[in-house]
Amino acid sequence: MLDTALINKHIGLNAKMVPFAGYNMPLQYSGLTDEHIAVRSNVGVFDVSHMGEFIVEGEGSLEFLQYVTSNDVSKLYIGKVQYSCLPNGHNGIVDDLLIYQLSENKYMLVVNASNIEKDWNWLMKYKPENVEMTDISGSTSLLAVQGPKALDVIKDLTSLNLEEMQYYTFLEGIIAGINDVLISTTGYTGSGGFEIYVNNENAEKIWDAIFDAGRQIDIKPAGLAARDTLRLEMGFCLYGNDIDDNTSPIEAGLGWVTKFSKEFLGSDMLKKQKEEGVSRKLVGFELTERGIPRQGYLIKDQTGEEIGKVTSGTMAPSLQKAIGLGYVKRDFSAIGSTIYIEIRNKQIPASVVTLPFK
User: Fold this and answer.
1) What percent of the chain has a predicted confidence (pLDDT) above 90?
2) First vs last Cα of the chain: how many Å apart?
3) Selection from 103, 102, 65 nearest residue 84 by Cα
4) pLDDT in tens, 67-88
5) pLDDT of 89-99, one tens digit each?
6) CA 295, CA 325: separation in Å to the nearest integer?
7) Which of 56, 192, 231, 355 is most buried, with most CB under 10 Å away?
């Protein structure tokens, strides 16, 4: 089990630690609901240093990334970030990821912790000789400072113009006296904020500076449990739950990052799927009676026939209602459709709703 560079901070805060993607990670500190509400209304800090980071550089970098990812990498510019997928060539997803354009012919890929080795091996299969790849995951710490007051906490720690940053952009500079820090605005909570990439040796210094700056507004550490409920309220996919090697981006509602203006690995198959339609779709739903949906629960129609499965579900702390994501047969995917979640052998009615949940 690996530790992040901030393990001593978590232990000092009496965090409940759990194994996750090969790392010893904080699940919660003061409690899921408390941390969730702090991020929605104020500011919370996540240690997500378990995420993977690869540097891709060289003359062939753009062409390489265009082929192995689903989105149009040519639309990037220095300082811009893009959400994308690694298609597996068989209508499935190797991983979802972020692509940062650091400079001309140089990019950073941010991949899911559980897929670091898998993604690395996959990319190396297709990497041409004029591209170099470096795995910096083990030396890089990542903090996510999330919430409507995140700017208030960080702005005095740097001369970077954070106020003017647009969604899905990044800057590099000095933060809390530390050089070469990358700060971005990609967010996974739906409450705004920043992600800070820093070398492991400076992670504790950044953490301390952020908490010192946020003490007056009751900044809180937040764990993986709150991160999951926050992202689910927004309807964001989690790899391994809502998307995987057996789900296509078209089925998962990720057609917006699947660009057929270029050719990429498996693009012909996905284009055909988009044109002909899919047999199932990922939908958001709200229970209309009491119950909590969980991953793997069956979804049925009014006759009791199985029409799908829940991929993510929870009692949403901000909304005070039971919500979930799941794949259902296309005929049941329209907004307003009634579906039934099987919970302890009972069929609990639910309504298909638009995302994000409200």
Assistant:
1) 100
2) 38
3) 65
4) 999 999 999 999 999 999 999 9
5) 999 999 999 99
6) 9
7) 56
User: What mean pLDDT is predicted for residues 10-38?
Assistant: 98
Rounded mean pLDDT of the chain?
98
Q: Are 309 and 332 in contact (CB under 8 A)?
A: no
pLDDT tens track for 154-198? 999 999 999 999 999 999 999 999 999 999 999 999 999 999 999
**Nearest residue to 356 via CA among 267, 261, 234, 265:** 234
**Using CA atoms, how far apart are residues 275 and 342, in angstroms rounded to an integer?**
33
Query: Is 323 in contact with 316 (CB distance < 8 Å)?
Result: yes
Q: Which of 20, 18, 29, 11 is nearest to 50 (CA)?
A: 20
H or E element at residue 132: strand 132-135
What φ, ψ does residue 118 adopt, rounded to 5°? -60, -50
Beta carbons of 85 and 71 less than 8 angstroms apart: yes
For 85, 187, 253, 291, 355, the CA distances from 284, given in Å and listed in that order, are: 21, 20, 11, 16, 6
Which CATH number applies to 279-358? 2.40.30.110
Q: Bridge-partner residues for 45, per DSSP?
A: 145, 221
Q: What is the pLDDT of residues 229-261, one digit of tens each?
A: 999 999 999 999 999 999 999 999 999 999 999
Stated length of the chain: 358
115-128: buried (b, 16+ CB within 10 Å) or exposed (e) per residue?
Answer: bbebbbebbeeebe
Task: For residues 19 and 3, give the distance between their C-alpha atoms in angstroms, rounded to a whole number.
Answer: 10
CA dihedral for 35, 39, 40, 41, sign (positive or negative): positive
Domain span(s) for CATH 3.30.1360.120 in the chain: 2-48+138-233
**Tell me: domain 2-48+138-233, CATH 3.40.630.10, correct?**
no
Amino acid at 307: I
Which amino acid is located at 162 in the chain?
L
Counting Cα atoms < 13 Å in the Cβ hemisphere of 134 gives 9
Q: Across the beta sheet with 23-28, what order do the strands follow?
A: 2-3, 23-28, 16-20
Domain with CATH 2.40.30.110 in the chain: 279-358
Distance of CA 24 to the CA centre of its chain: 19
